[in-house]
Amino acid sequence: MDSIKVRGGTELDGRIAIAGAKNACLALMPATLLSDAPLTLTNAPRLSDIRTMTTLLQSLGAEVTQLQGGRVLALSSHDIASQRADYDIVRKMRASILVLGPLLARWGRAEVSLPGGCAIGARPVDLHQHAMECLGAELELRDGYLHARAPSGLRGAVIEFPLVSVGATENALMAAVLARGETEIRNAAREPEIVDLAHCLRAMGAQIEGEGTATIRVQGVSTLHGTTHSVVPDRIELGTYMLAPAIAGGTVECVGGRLDLVTRFAEKLSETGISVEETADGVRVSRSNGRVRAVDVVTAPYPGFPTDLQAQMMALMCTAEGVSVLEERIFENRFMHAPELMRMGARIEVHGGTARVTGVERLRGAPVMATDLRASVSLVLAGLAAEGETMVSRVYHLDRGYERIEEKLRACGADIERVRSE
Ligand code: EPZ
Fold first, then answer.
1. What is the 3-state secondary structure (H, E, C) of 333-349?
2. Which of 75, 129, 281, 342 is 20 to 30 Å apart from 111, CA to CA?
3. How far is the CA of 165 from the centre of ligand 1 (A)?
4. Quick one: angle between helices 100-107 and 166-176, nearest 10?
5. What are 213-248's pLDDT values in tens digits?
């Protein structure tokens, strides 16, 4: 397993290209199952999660071809050999559950392994089941698999979510576009990745309105055609790299990043005293003098502060002036980075879903371990400003969501390298 070695203390100066959104691409790729016409995705990120979704779709019989080094994905599902998403693929990536809606919508049946929990929480899929049952499917949990059937097809319905779920909203949307009649999804997630999916489905002939609001209405159609769609820029990668100069000092321009997709996060970052400005090419962030100010953070569904940026923000708060209280309200166990940051000298008290961080002058480099995607990148960020050397192990977590992070940061002057394990 590779590690990443960071020697802190160098200010950053340079530009970082922001890739297409992992979490948009992971919902867009299963959309190929909804039509027998080709779907082409451009601006696709080159990540291990995308390769896992490719393997899953190919295991069903879909064709997925990576062009231009993976930047373009050519997908088609003319003939599907199987409707079974196997455990050995699903356990690697929870987003595999997103084939459930499309398989049910087009073939009337699906067998999807339950993803199982992960480091940040139990991650149940009861809301996905609820949505499919509202649309007329029968689901049975057997041998760790969700067995779903809709022999007479799906029919439009009102789907009311008791809590906001990004994935369940995406599954409901993809199932509804081919259901007979009208579907109304209430308390829908509003994330930009859902808006991006709706734009792509509409380009394929779906009739959707209200994406990005809490109520999405869909008029089912009988078939969908193909399209070419450019994946929306990744707002979480953007937020992550905006924090790099905030933590290490200096200036970084995030090229291709869209400030309008990180409004709440950017406001919070500005409150700490960091300069955030929109440029013709993206977003420029700089920190000139001294320590940043401590601020409080509460994670919430979009457009609130993203849970996927909580760990990275905590890394900044570790050396802020004052005390910061971070409340994680989306997942039940998303402070796995805290004990690792404490190994670097951070002062953090975790009580349930609340972490209280008392800023210190400087962190000290140490060997630390990645536990999940966003926790691991928060350790790399912390290492940028820590005194001495930080070695982050198990960086396969990182490679799931960040393309060549060490190259992007090194190009801005960071003293960082990947140490390949034998
Ligand atoms: C998506 O996960 C993202 N993943 C996550 O990003 C992100 O953290 C999350 O949305 C929240 O924004 C992808 O898009 C592939 P949810 P998802 O359903 O859809 C509970 C990353 O780092 N819930 O919105 O799985 C759930 O336990 C990843 O890129 C149920 O109770 O998240 C959580 O507490 C991590 N029952 C809350 O809802 C369900 O059926 C929100 O989860 C589904 C979810």
1. CCCCHHHHHHHCCCEEE
2. 75
3. 6
4. 10
5. 999 999 999 999 999 999 999 999 999 999 999 999
